[in-house]
């Protein structure tokens, strides 16, 4: 049940933020908005307020804002021509379309800001506490356990995890004697590091070094910071994740990251439920990450997506004339086929993950 609720919260909030971006900028430029919908397909319920029909539709995998004069070939009544999307200057149309994905990116900044402002900036808890011991590793064979504190390596005191890594690495594979604290008792353990491949977060091998097979504890503590610092940290964290997402897309195109890593709504629902169970801070971080992914996805230059429309507007700005109706129609058909193929693929991945546990 928590999985379903958390999924509805994540998807509902992020779709609303995206469509609200289009909506509010359209209103800013006096464009008539006919419909604001969360979801696609048949209308489930809603209410007309003024000139806009606000509704929730049957398929909850997106949403849309329908503006007067938005669709190709659509004409507005003479009295409302000035409120038509198509009748607005190019730069206003560009900003209206770009507002959706950029509101998603801005929403991530807001979420990080709220966490940092009210909870604090997270930092790893200092010390040498072991977080995990890899199975069949030298550390596991020596009897090291998660939760042990490494006090010294070969008699040299260790104050932080960098000391532990450096002393083991500098030993060049020779046996090391570890002084550890476990449940208030100090023990001595001897283990022989093995040379292992070191990989980055994308699974690429970046080198080799001698390791025992332990990782530091993932516990964090929160440091209070000013609102200005929290805002700066929110921007920094958002930019970091934007860059990471773009690099991941490139790595996937290069087939360094397998396409089977792609996930769809089922995976998002599972992860949302897991993060909700861990705690609300993890859930907020997860929502910010999905918001960033949604923003970047919509900026990709694929027809039908916001990025595809921005490409058309860019071409129009360069050539001083709109892209022909025929080219736009063909491009949109290709874009729809690409999106359908992508949706089928991610659903397939999600289903295979369920069968494989």
From TrEMBL:
Family annotation (InterPro entries): PDZ, PDZ_6, PDZ_sf, Pept_M50_Zn, Peptidase_M50
Root EC class: hydrolase
UniProt keyword terms in alphabetical order: Hydrolase, Membrane, Metal-binding, Metalloprotease, Protease, Transmembrane, Transmembrane helix, Zinc
Cofactor: Zn(2+)
Locations listed in the record: Membrane
Domain PDZ: 127-183
Residue ranges crossing the lipid bilayer per the database entry: 6-29, 94-119, 230-250, 280-300, 330-348
Topology within the bilayer: Multi-pass membrane protein
GO cellular component, one term: membrane
Enzyme Commission numbers on file: 3.4.24.-
Gene3D superfamilies associated with the record: 2.30.42.10
Main location: membrane
UniProt xrefs under Pfam families: PDZ_6, Peptidase_M50
Keyword Transmembrane helix found: yes
Family membership noted in the UniProt record: Belongs to the peptidase M50B family.
Official protein name in the record: Zinc metalloprotease
UniProt organism field: Desulfurivibrio alkaliphilus (strain DSM 19089 / UNIQEM U267 / AHT2)
Species lineage: Bacteria, Pseudomonadati, Thermodesulfobacteriota, Desulfobulbia, Desulfobulbales
